[in-house]
Amino acid sequence: MHTPDDRRPWWRTAVVYEVYLRSFADSDGDGTGDVNGLRSRLPYLADLGVDAIWVTPWYPSPMADGGYDVSDHRDIDPRLGTLGEVDALLAEAHGVGLRLVVDLVANHTSAEHPWFRAAVAGGPSAPERTRYFFRDGRDGGQAPPNDWVSAFGGPAWTRVREPDGRMGQWYLHLFAPEQPDLDWAEPAVWEEFDGIVRFWLDRGVDGIRVDAAPAMAKAPGLPDAGHGPGALFESSRWVDNPHWDRDEVHEVFRHWRKIAEGYDGDRLLVSEAVVNGPERLARYVRPDELHTTFNFDYLRAPWDATTIRAAVDGTLAALAPVGAPVTWVLSSHDETRHVTRFGRARSGAAPMGFDPASPVDRALGLRRARAAILLTLALPGGAYLYQGEELGLPEVEDLPEEVLQDPTWERSGRTARGRDGCRVPLPWSGNRPPFGFTTDGVRPWLPQPEEWRELTVAAQRNDPASTLSLYRSALRLRRSLPGLADDEPLTWQDLGDDVLAFDRGPRFRCVVNLSARPVPLAGQGEPALTSEAMAGEVPPDTAVWLVGG
Ligand code: NOJ
């Protein structure tokens, strides 16, 4: 909850809770989460203690990519709600002290967007084609115009059937074929999105998350990227790539920053940018660009002290010169849930559900996840939580193949299951599916595991040892503990190999034990919160917040 008299912009230290709307709470019994479901659960989120919610796309969409294929950026999909309900959500969220961030998908539209339909229907000379990337193919038109690959697997080009019935030009889609890329070299695209950005800011939203920010400029002439057959979309490794992280994207963000500054109330622009290292990331949050950006180096780090510390130090060092706060994130609707990741021998995250399945020690994963949230919430800056992580939900790895919806599944030739396993609807209450997510007797859009009966909100709410209670306590203490509530920088302490220990100011210390032996705590302060029950020493895979010193 924000404090009105806080002089720092709220987003510098905010904890933002990601709502994957389709899977959060369903109010009308169709098995899909919706705006009114979210409204009904606002008291839960306020009580949890987060500052803001980010809602994934709720716009009219054929749902080829879970709503990231938008056919109208200024309306709400009727399956999810109405604009009137969104206005009510906004007022009610503000009423309980929560801010609201919306998702802006500007790199691409849906193939059902009126612009794209007109571009296809108008034939090769249609002026609407200049808003996208339509090109003739190579080899007499038979082969894609270049070697670019889609994030979901396969080529980034699809060929259209022209109005005369013959196969014709190709169009670019860095994501699914149902998501044609817009050409941001076109003034009409800028104008359109100016209007969309203003539409949402005028409605009173507190922030905008910019989807796929590094994709929003392509090298003139669309040269080959050097991607071989079967290449993966490994944007965190690309250097000088013709379709990713190009300098021109920053012009758009400078322009949007100016628009946002015309509004009162510290509106936030936050980017999703998976780029090659923290120095490239820092370019998105220069003083006249976006305010914050997700930190994928931290998210992708395996449960290993050296790698995590390198990600923390690297990001803090890179963002300090531009004056932007760091955000810390462990999970999202695009990644294998971290309870599952941390229970694997190879505990780092691979992008877009391309994680090879491997045996999971669920208890170990949960133990590490509980320690990880104390680490995350003790670091300087802001944090993003993904719905359900406060319940310790694991990835659902055994969804039947016939329910899988993520385009990754088909595009990878059914080799990568994709991201559905982290999108299974939340369990709220009761002993069997749908666990209060939707009306009893209705099947949620993805099936929930029976064993989630032990992980429901109702089952955890009054249990002081539950993961939900740990998150609530941590979020409360974060507001009140000296060091955490202030802008104190982090100072590392040496408590031995594989132990992450740091102070925030003279009276707060966080110790996370990633080693295999216990770490003695004598003389280090009084435990204010621990991720596991402990006495006198920190057991392996455990974190503690200490006060006093
Ligand atoms: C990133 C989003 O988080 C993801 O879910 C989506 O598939 C791509 N961008 C394309 O919009």
What does this structure look like?
By secondary structure, the protein is an alpha/beta fold. It has three domains: 10-104 and 294-467, Glycosidases (TIM Barrel, Alpha-Beta Barrel), CATH 3.20.20.80; 114-172, Oligo-1,6-glucosidase, Domain 2 (Oligo-1,6-glucosidase, domain 2); 489-547, Sandwich (Immunoglobulin-like). Helix content is 24%, strand content 14%. It contains 14 helices and 18 strands. The protein has helices at residues 35-40, 42-48, 83-95, 114-121, 187-203, 249-261, 278-282, 296-300, 305-319, 338-341, 362-378, 407-411, 457-461, 467-480; strands at residues 15-19, 52-55, 99-104, 134-135, 157-161, 167-172, 207-210, 268-271, 292-293, 327-329, 382-386, 490-493, 499-504, 508-513, 519-520, 526-530, 537-538, 542-547. The strands form four sheets. Strands 9-8-7-3-2-1-11-10 form an eight-stranded parallel sheet. α7 links the parallel β8 (268-271) and β9. α11 runs parallel beside α14 (467-480). The longest helix has 17 residues, at 187-203. 1-deoxynojirimycin is lined by residues 65, 68, 105, 175, 211-212, 272, 333-334.
